[in-house]
Amino acid sequence: MSQPRPRIHGWTPTLCRVLMRLGLTMVLLFVPAWVLATTRTWPGAAPCNGTLQACVNASVNGDTIEIATDGPIDESPNLSDRSLTLRPAATYHPSFTAGRSITASTSALAGNISLTLSGLRFANGFVQVTYNGTGVGTYDLSGLELTQSAGGGATYLAVEANGGTVSALLYDNRVTATPRGPYAGLIEIKNQGAVLNGNAYYNQVATNSAVRVAGGGLMVAAESNGTGTFKVHANQVRGGFTRGGIFVSEGLSFPTASSVSARIFNNALVGTNYSDTGGACLDVVVKNGTIDLQAMNNTVTRCRWGISILQWSGGAPSAGVTGSVLNNIVVSTGGLMFTPAIASLPSNDYNLINATSNVAALGPHTITADAKLATDSAPRLQATSPAIDAADTTSLISALWGTGLPWVDADGLRRIKGAPGLADIGAFEFGDLSLLHGASSANTLGHVTSIDNPAVNGQPGTDLLATPNFSAGGSVSNQHSLGVYYALSRWRLFNQDFAGVPLGASFNVWAPAVGSGRFRHVSSAVNTSAWSTALDSSSVNNRPDRIVLATQNWSAGASVYNPHPIGVYYFGFGGAGRWYVVNVDEQTGGEMPLDAGFNVYAQDASPNAFRVTATAFGGVALDHPLLDGVPCAQVQATRVHFSPTTAHFDVYYASGRWRIFDGAMAPGTQFNVVVDPAQIFACTDVIFADGFQ
What we know:
Blueprint (H helix, E strand, L loop, with lengths): L12 H17 L9 E4 L9 H7 L5 E4 L17 E4 L13 E4 L7 E6 L2 E3 L3 E5 L4 E7 L2 E3 L9 E5 L3 E7 L2 E4 L7 E8 L2 E7 L2 E4 L8 E8 L3 E7 L2 E3 L7 E5 L8 E7 L2 E3 L11 E5 L3 E7 L2 E13 L8 E7 L2 E10 L8 E3 L2 E3 L2 E3 L33 H11 L29 E6 L5 E2 L2 E3 L14 E5 L12 E6 L2 E6 L10 E6 L6 E5 L5 E2 L2 E3 L12 E7 L12 E6 L6 E6 L13 E7 L5 E5 L5 E4 L13 E5 L9 E5 L2 E5 L8 E5 L2 H8 L9
Parallel strand pairs: 1-2, 2-3, 3-5, 4-7, 5-8, 6-9, 7-10, 8-11, 9-12, 10-13, 11-14, 12-15, 13-16, 14-17, 15-18, 16-19, 17-20, 18-21, 19-22, 20-23, 21-24, 22-24, 23-25, 24-26, 25-27, 26-28, 26-29, 34-40
Antiparallel strand pairs: 30-36, 31-32, 32-35, 33-36, 34-35, 37-43, 38-39, 39-42, 40-43, 41-42, 44-49, 45-48, 46-49, 47-48
């Protein structure tokens, strides 16, 4: 449905800036006082000039403590009954001494608690947070890394709700260890009599054993009349577990029935081998209550059973699992194992089952064939996979809307792409293409350098994005406004100011597959004013959280040159929110011409599609587990307009890190960044070697 055009049209750049700043000021006038609490640095000034625990004890609810040391920190902080944020200061990577942990529990009469932990590292230690109160507990645990060495102590990440109403988000954490017991997990979200909404997104979980181990990988459990919803989305779990890579349980320890919903979407589970006699890759077990299950678009491989639905011994005859099992890839010895004795079982259909047996009547649209994966331990799709465009997309879209989950796959990239409106079966969508182009005497003439790749040759509808890569071609920089165009069956990169493309200059070129979030935009009299042109697409309108990339496309418009560095920004004050493509040299004559074309890409944020902010002059480091130590990575980036500049940027690799650089970059400058894990797998073949993506 079309949206009203934004009222920003016709306003001057100065007025736009004033209103944006005024809007921020007006918002701040109504912010509760606790939001404006103190940010402390440890180690730093008193009271944070001693131990970390002393700094915690001296803080008040709502404070933030930034850790300005890499450590190791020889403490086990206790954060009980505290509402705090504990995170690294800029450029630091705090680690705790081996065996140290963090605990945070509440008293039985505790009121509201809000705790955020991020970016901390533990060796042979754990993070355990427990809410025992009667109010509201809010927990945000992200970017934590917990690693267990051989013979090391208990290592896990756990949230437990024993009362009240609890919201927990466990986001992009990494745990490599052995579960501490047969009914324990490496990541746990447990509900014992509370109202718990627990979300586990983008976590990386792996055993440190080459053989099957007791327990589960990522465990969500409810008992003792617990209610709420578990959302388990885009996690990657590797290793053999007796209780499953993902373990969903109701009523394990207490007889009182619970009734919970479990939304298991877009996860990749890779077991140890096909002959294990233990649990399934995805293990769902009910006792006396009910689990409303949606298990959708997961990929499970290398297990004895792919997906199992069981009942705990001694359970009630009325116990059941309702819902649906749709769009999953199962590559295992046994496919679906649904215990017939359970009172109710979910439906199943549109799954791709590559197994020798099933204990479930398969739905009519089930595909029984070779899944055609890259490998069963790196289970992305090959181009010939029957899973491509074969999902029940209508049900998937309905479920994504209903759950509010991000529309991304296990790689953190767009969930639906390829044939118009069709999704792939399994956790990974197929279709994006990355390539590295280098300007040479054979492909470059003047201000144009031609791309010759079979995947994009003869494809005028491809919407290329390009980012200059300073490192790949021998440290050659192209400090000019870049564009792309198509002619004579080839895509070409060119400098819009007609300056020659230097030989040896290299460019990361990305061709995202057709689908929602990929579109072309042309500036016109109704959408363009001064230095900016407003985008109008359902994939970006009123979505300030979107990660938006843009590259000028001479072919998309009326062959109009726009010799200016570009960026994007979002503005929503006084009308419908819009993203804009802007000429960032606005104060030096950077007017946006009419009929200029742009390729635009947009998606939900994820660990692989994110916004990064410079904290120092000149550049910003991309501290990312898929990029660190990987010089062949191909990063895509677009500037988020912050302040006028005439500078051009590029990406480069040095000292084990990728960075974005321009000599005039000011602190606070932001970039939207997209990392393609499939590209990194292709250039290194080491993804999954450490159990992560």
